[in-house]
Amino acid sequence: MNSASNTPLHSALRLTLFAALTALLTQCMSFAPPPAATADYAMERSRSASPSASNIQERPGLGTQLGHELNDASTATFFHRKSDRLPDAVATFHYNDEEGARLMAALSGRATRRDGPFDLVPGKLRASVCPTWWRASDAFDHYQAGGKVFVIGSPGSQYQLKFENRTNQRMEIVVSVDGLNVLDGQTASVRKRGYVIPAKSEVAIRGMRVGGRLKSFVFSSVAQSRAATAFGESGARNVGVIGVACYEEDETARRRQRVEENYLRSGARAFGQ
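and the corresponding structure tokens:
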């Protein structure tokens, strides 16, 4: 029996089986993706999901760069919020170049292109993004889709934000551009202070304050944006969005302050002696 296992017939069968297995393995290996291609794909996926400082330069679309210094004619005033914990409303909208805004709108639903202002908080606040020479008809066009707004900016253009208070009371709005508060140029928070808009009036925000200086808004590349140059990758993640937190006023507290001020003024002396 042992000698039978070494016959020429069994040797030939073993050689045939070995050749078949070798061919099969070679065929399977020919369908496997090359390691280099797999590594490149994984790297591209990683870069797309988490932008690094190097590929911020490659990102398309618009950001907001700060331009020349502006004369700041705004003044400080008191405003008593009904609640210091939470705003009464928070709304956002996006901006981008023509191609980017159109594609973003298409992802949200059936898009419609419009001009002029748009409702940000229905019945309370309207908004528009305008060139620095804005008139009523000069607002940048925008797309509306799925309840969202996508403003169409123009690279290199200066712009300003216009907000219209449609209520019968004063309103405070905390505004952010690219995730940065427009009053200090730092990371935005709804708890920070904002602009006060009188009843049935509007306000134009022409730029962002940085280091106590007001600098104009300019549509730029992502890499040149204030968010990217000042805060790197973390700042660049929020490029292209504008947010507004709205606060209603506590009228009782406001009237109380007025009464106290009137009593104080009634005791004022025209002459010290």
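(Above: one complete record from the training split.) The two ends are 136 Å apart (CA to CA).
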